[in-house]
Amino acid sequence: MELAARDDIPSDHDALSDVLAQLGERVAPVTFARERTLPIAEPLSGLFPEQALVRGRVLSCCGTAASSMAFSVASEALAQGAWMAVVDVDTFGADAAAELGVPLERIVRIESNPRLSSDASAEAASDRLAAEWIDVMGAAVDGFDIVVTRVPASLRTDRRPAAVRKLGSRVQQRGAVVLVLGDAGALGSDITLTTQRTVWEGLGQGFGHLRCRQIEIEAAGRRQPRAQRCSLELVGAAGRVALRAGVASGESALAVVAGDDLAVGRAVDAVELDPQAEVLAEMRAGLHDDHLAAG
Q1: What residues make up the domain containing 286?
Q2: Does residue 46 share a domain with residue 166?
Q3: How many structural domains is the chain composed of?
Q4: Cβ(141)–Cβ(172) under 8 Å?
Q5: For 260, phi and psi rounded to 5 degrees?
Q6: Residues 113 and 231 occupy one common structural domain
Q7: What is the CATH number of the domain that holds 60?
Q8: What is the pLDDT of residues 261-288, one digit of tens each?
Q9: Is 86 in contact with 110 (CB distance < 8 Å)?
Q10: Is residue 257 packed enough to be buried (19+ CB in 10 Å), middle (13-18) or exposed (0-12)?
Q11: Is the pTM of this model over 0.90?
C-alpha cells in the first residue's frame, strides 16, 4: 500500500478532515498502535532516556539543522512501518528527506490552507490560521504515528488557549509523536533538540564541493533528567546513521555515512530545509576561519 501527497486535497475544513480521517483508517492497521515507543536509530537513541521515541510526546527541533534533525529522528520508525504526516511545512523537500534515509512512501504532506476573505483583518486571518492548524493537527495525530509541523506564529507564546491544551491532551491519548520545527510555543515541548554548532567541510579557496556538514546537538527538557549532547555528520547522498569510534566518555558521536560526494548544487538541495541565509553565513564563516588559519 502506497500513499503519496495529493494535490487535490480540498482546502475546505470539513472536506480536509474527512480526507485525513480516511487516511488515518488506511494507515492504522500497519502502525505501532500497541507499542509505547517508536524505534529510533541506535546512535540517536542515546539522546533519549528511554532509548526510543515515547508515544504521546512533543519534541522541538531548533537551530539551523532543525529539519535534518527531525527527519533523522523519524527515519528508523518509518523504515520499520510507521506513517508520518507533514503538516503546514512549506519548506519540506522530498529529496532532502530521502537523503536522510526517510522512505517517502510513508509520508503524507498536508497543507491546511484555510479560505480567507479578502477583507479579513490581519488579526482575524492569524486567528483563522491558528484554528485551522489546531483542527488539522487533531485529525493528523488520530491516524499517524509521527507528525512533523510548524506551530503558527500566533501560537508561539506562553499563553495556552483551551483548544491548544485539548490538542496536547489528544496527542497523549492517541500516542502520536509530534516533531515541531522551531518553537513549540503554546503546544509545549517535552524535549528540545538544539543545534549548538554547525561546520561545513569541502570548500577551499575558490574550489571544492560541499561534502560534509557536522552539527552538534543538545537534548534537554522537562522529560530529560540531564542534558545529552552528540555530534552528527551529514555526509554524501543516500546516507545511513552509524556510530563513530574514539569519542569522549559520556558523549555520543554519530555519522551519516554515504557512498559518494556531493556537487555544490546537490549539496544545496540536500540542505534546502534550512534557511538559505544561515547556510551561506556558515559557509562564509568557515572560509574566513580557514583564511585566518592559513595566514
Answers
A1: 194-294
A2: yes
A3: 2
A4: no
A5: -145, 165
A6: no
A7: 3.40.50.300
A8: 333 223 333 333 344 444 444 444 444 4
A9: yes
A10: middle
A11: no
